[in-house]
Design brief:
The protein is an all-beta fold. The protein has a domain of 110 residues. The chain is built from no helices and 10 strands. Strand 2 and strand 3 form a beta hairpin. The chain is elongated, with a radius of gyration of 28 Å. The chain starts with 14 loop residues before the first strand and ends with a strand. 7% of the residues are buried.
């Protein structure tokens, strides 16, 4: 439900995570039977952001959960522009006259992005979305004894909301 209006929430989120990369490499023929490949790759995995500005996250306070708050944010974590990944490779032929036998090897550092599915639950963060449970009713009427009460903890609205049928 939408805690600001009590109506249906809009859980659609336009999460996007731009990705950029660049690579340079050079080959050196050290000897007729030994070639070295040296390269460097730079990668940038942007923190997810939301196209409509409806991204929110929990921020811990000085007393951890006691004074934490859900706040609107533009991203979940700080960007990291330092993902430089060196690469090294070689091709060596122990018998230069035999071109059919070559030993090849390499080494590199590789980076991977955080999977976007980890952030899919962010669509249900307040202030634009709140989950509620039905309590205290029976099979005939979930409103038995009065309205359903729910709390969102969002600082802009009252801590306790009433949601009654027809309202």
């Amino acid at each position: 439900m939408n805690p600001e209006t009590g109506g249906s929430p809009n859980a659609e989120r336009g999460l996007r995570t731009p990705y950029y990369g660049a690579f340079i490499q050079d080959d050196w023929k050290i000897r007729p039977n030994l070639t070295l490949n040296i390269g460097l790759r730079w990668e940038y995995f942007s923190p997810p952001d939301e196209v409509h500005g409806t991204l929110s996250n929990l921020y811990f306070g000085s007393n951890l959960l006691a004074n934490s708050a859900v706040q609107l944010t533009s991203q979940f974590y700080r960007p990291d522009y330092r993902d430089f990944a060196p690469r090294f490779g070689f091709a060596w032929s122990p018998w230069p006259q035999d071109h059919n036998f070559v030993v090849r090897g390499g080494f590199g550092i590789f980076y991977d992005r955080i999977p976007e599915t980890l952030f899919s639950n962010a669509a249900m963060n307040p202030p634009y979305f709140a989950s509620l449970g039905i309590c205290c009713g029976n099979a005939g009427s979930p409103f038995d004894g009065g309205p359903i009460l729910y709390a969102t903890g969002w600082v802009n609205t009252a801590a306790l909301h009433r949601f009654a049928p027809g309202h």
